[in-house]
Design brief:
- By secondary structure, the chain is an alpha+beta fold.
- The protein is 38% helix and 26% strand.
- The chain contains two helices and four strands; from the N terminus they run E-E-H-E-E-H.
- It has a four-stranded antiparallel beta sheet with strand order 1-2-4-3, covered by helices on one side.
- A hairpin with a 2-residue loop joins strand 1 and strand 2.
Length: 77
Amino acid sequence: MFDERDGRLVCEIIAADFAAAFAVMSHVALIAEAVGHHPDMTISWNRLSIELWSHDVGAITDRDRELAARLEGVLPA
C-alpha cells in the first residue's frame, strides 16, 4: 500500500467522499499521535495522501517503515 517515491513512503487513499476521506485521516492521526511519529497528510474531496519520512534526517527511517506497517493494517485497500 505504501510505495517509496522521492525518498518518502507514500500512500494514496480513494474514499467515497470527503467525509470518508476525513474519517480515514482522523484514524491515521490518532495512530500517529499514539506512536509519536506524524505523517504529512493532504486531503481533497475524496482523496487522502499520506507521506512518511523523517524530517530531521531528510530520509526514510525505521520509524517511518514501522508506522507504515501499522497503518497498512488499518487502512482501506
